[in-house]
Amino acid sequence: MTTNDLRKVMRQNIREYGMYIALVAIMAIFTANTKGIFISSRNIANLLNQTGYIAVLAVGMTLVIVIRHIDLSVGFLAGFLGAIAAIALTSWHMNVWLVLVLVLALGVLAGLVTAFPVARLGIPSFVASLAGWLIYRGALLLVTSSKGTIIIPDDTFNAIGNGYIPDILPVDSAFLPGLHKLTLILGFLAVVWFIVSEIGARKSKRSYNFDVIPNDMFVLKIIFISFVLGLITWVLAGYNGLSWTVVIVLGVVMVYDYIARQTVLGRHIYVVGGNPEAAELSGISVKKITFVVFGSMGFLTALSGILFASRLQSATTTAGTLFELDCIAAAYIGGVSAAGGVGKITGSLIGALVYMSLMNGMNLMGTDISLQYVIRGAVLASAVIFDVATRRRKR
Amino acid sequence: MNTPILEMKNITKTFPGVKALNDVSFSVAQGEIHCLVGENGAGKSTLMKVLSGVHPHGDYSGEILFAGQVQKFRGIADSEKAGIAIIYQELALVPDMTVYENILLGHEIRKGPAVDWNETIKKANEMLKKVRLDINPASLVKDLGVGRQQLVEIAKALCKDVKLLILDEPTAALNEDDCDNLLDLIRHLKEQGVTCVLISHKLKEVIKIADTVTVLRDGKTVVTLDAHKGEVSEGVLIKHMVGREIDNIYPRREHKRSEEVVLEVRGWGAHDNKLGRNVLTDVHFKVRKGEIIGFAGLMGSGRTELAKSIFGNPDGYTLSGELRVKDEVRSFRHTSEAIKAGIAYATEDRKGNGLILIQDVKQNITLANLAEISKRGVVNNNAEVKVATEYKEALSIKTPTVEQMVVNLSGGNQQKVSVAKWLFVKPDVLILDEPTRGIDVGAKYEIYSIMNALVEQGMSIIMISSELPEVLGMSDRIYIVSNGRITGELPVGEATQEKIMQLATS
Ligand SMILES: Nc1ncnc2c1ncn2[C@@H]1O[C@H](COP(=O)(O)OP(=O)(O)OP(=O)(O)O)[C@@H](O)[C@H]1O
Ligand SMILES: [Mg+2]
């Protein structure tokens, strides 16, 4: 392989690789500055669980931004729905599964309500969702005002944000003691699946005579990503294994990524974002897509509220504060474009990881909170500038 | 002729997978009108972008000499300073701003830190006089017709001290009157010493106005012809452009006449609530199976509105009257219902509401008929590539792969993509709104042949066109639209340009 090849591939994919490089760099810096605490199994598990509730929001927000809208109401809506879950469990004594279904359904409903003025009346989503922000903030205060914090006693519910998947063998069994076996197996399967699907995709591209990256580059890429996947698996297996939060987030990301890239619905969403008038004239209902995207945002907001309440094992009066801005930041770091029609689901996951790694790492280092905000802002700004600059070069 | 004001020597410019310009040399004499012609994707726009610094020095190889000096433009600002003004294929005005704001955009006249609006308006008025446009400079650009917008764009260019004015297909969207008006203006500017490079696919106007014509083909200069030596004729140009002769630009064929009516409107009216007026009044027409209907008329006569009001009414007019599709009274609530009923509408404004520029060729082609290449809501990528490649070849869309982003295609090839998208829907009635705008003669011929083939298979086509020869050359019957009404119907045998123009202005 020549350095020229390497440079060419890097230049063509700089936007995507840039994000991974940033993530690795951030992790390396924090690991060095915390004497390795950052990369410890325990902290990584913790970091992933923290990322969960922002990541699912970022996934939904990505699609909202792709269709040229914004939803500011998600933060307090997540807090409010978390409180509803807590009340349903403690005061109404509902079955925990029923509560989950109820809260998710309420989320979808809330999303559709936000979509209504936007899609039907042409009200800017910024304004419509700002109204939602105020309303849900009030609603959250109202339902939590009598008790303040509502403690959730339900173990099943709390496992969502704190629990780990069970293992097939006891942890202290003679075979690989101290490691979570099921996590190892799943990680191994993921690596195999990744390699097989990459080779498949390359083959089919070849059969159409499309450009593919050179062989040695391809092998290098496979080895690198497999190594990263393996490393993550190893680190997680060293603590309690995969948490339920991670399972849920991965599930959401995989389903949404598939929908976005492979389905008619996904295509329509990106077409509406790319050129709404053209979409309308191609028989695609912009209204319908708007409802679908906001409905999905509501669903994911409810999920985020559940993850957060479950993680804290309680509902508080300030739950969800600033979530909306955190997930918007994550989506932009992940490469979504405000002009519409551009943005990857996987990008937003990485964006959320970058963003939450920053918070987690700076907390470990004991960085002053005021400085933390400044650094987060600086990272967001540089990510977007980098994005715009690399995009322009491509043209 | 006199000394060259511009010499471009051995220009080569490559994009990933495309050699857009291959060792092109191009020279323009002081004070002449120099036309640049060639097929879609021949490299005309790219050559002008190299000249104006859009593709900066270093992105291409070769040398540019302008006004006797070697130039290394790093951006538009550099070339503007040297006295080159370019008006792009796509208009670049701000629709919601006034005419005077647009004219002085980027060259605002200041008094201290603030804009001096009185001076601005005065200067704008001067410029408007120069382009002989008599309008209120305070009117909004979006309220002007395309023809006038074009003139405003030229006025804007003239604000700077222009030695060389480049116009990239300025007349593509204009009707004949506006065209003549523009050509007049260019002659007038020439008298005042402005050299002009004009890119156009309308060969008749090229012949009318050019002093010199350069033909590009596949990124190479084929020939430069001197009009004053009688070297230029339509036949000669076509031969150089496409490399073969086309004797009949409009391939006529005898249509099997069928009496089956597939689409009919009766007493059709449309009221635009935003404008507060009727855009269509008491329209009657019918379309039979297997015929090509031409809709002639002036810009803004209501032809596009008529098409859209039938095609699911996306602009939300209040409709009245009766729409019959295959003998059934229908009213569509959405474009998707119209598509399902077998009606398709290819828009006149491919960039504005036709294409998704940031998506690739294949996604644009399959967009309106994803159902056909998907199963249970999941798109089959391989089928998509196959379909798109078929249309790419059928319409000779010039692109390295169907995965190229549409924004990177030349204007004419974008138009082909937008037509291909609707061909893939395989409708019963296909409404084509200005289908050959910005398309070269060869590709026009291909599109006409495809239209004929489709009609043979039983499709009906409604062609809206401002090019009368095209309407006369391709239609079986012609309806003339004026002021939102149908003012006449002519079988093609009886139609002449004069008759149509008379009805169109009545
Ligand atoms: N930014 C770009 N990226 C990739 N390819 C490009 C880009 N711009 C132009 N091309 C390619 O270069 C070739 C020449 O394009 P150009 O726009 O100069 O054609 P043109 O002669 O102006 O055609 P038309 O008459 O259709 O406007 C085309 O094949 C086009 O696809
Ligand atoms: Mg062009």
Approximate helicity band of chain B: 25-40%
CATH superfamily of the largest domain in chain B, please? P-loop containing nucleotide triphosphate hydrolases
Low-confidence stretches of chain A: none
The strand count of chain B comes to 24
Largest interface: A-B, 26 and 36 residues
Q: What's the end-to-end separation of chain A, in Å?
A: 27 Å
Biggest sheet layout of chain B: 6 strands, mixed
Count the domains of chain B. Answer: 2
Main beta sheet strand tally, sense and closure of chain A: 2 strands, antiparallel
Tell me the count of domains of chain A. 1
User: And the CATH topology of the largest domain in chain B?
Assistant: Rossmann fold
Total count of helical runs of at least 4 residues of chain B = 17
The ligands found in this model are:
adenosine-5'-triphosphate, magnesium ion
CATH class of chain A: Mainly Alpha
- State the shape of chain A: globular
Structure characterization notes:
The complex is a heterodimer of chains A (395) and B (506). Helices cover 76% and strands 1% of the residues of chain A. Chain A is mainly α and 395 residues long. Chain A has a single domain (3-163, 243-394), classed as ABC transporter involved in vitamin B12 uptake, BtuC. Chain A has a two-stranded antiparallel ribbon with strand order 1-2. The longest helix of chain A is centred in the middle third of the chain and has 27 residues, at 181-207. Chain B is α/β, with parallel strands linked by helices and 506 residues long. Chain B folds into 2 domains: 4-242, Rossmann fold (3-Layer(aba) Sandwich), CATH 3.40.50.300; 261-504, 3-Layer(aba) Sandwich (Rossmann fold). Chain B is built from 17 helices and 24 strands. In chain B, strand 13 (261-272) and strand 14 (277-288) form a beta hairpin. In chain B, helix 4 crosses helix 5. The longest helix of chain B has 16 residues, at 176-191. The radius of gyration of chain B is 24 Å and the shape is globular. The two termini of chain B are 46 Å apart. The mean pLDDT of chain B is 88. Chain A binds chain B through residues 204, 208, 210-211, 262-265, 267-268, 270-271, 274-275, 277-285, 341-342, 395, and chain B through 311-312, 314, 334-336, 338-340, 345, 347, 352-359, 363, 367-368, 370-371, 374, 377-379, 381-382, 385, 401, 403, 407-408, 421. Bound molecules: adenosine-5'-triphosphate and magnesium ion.
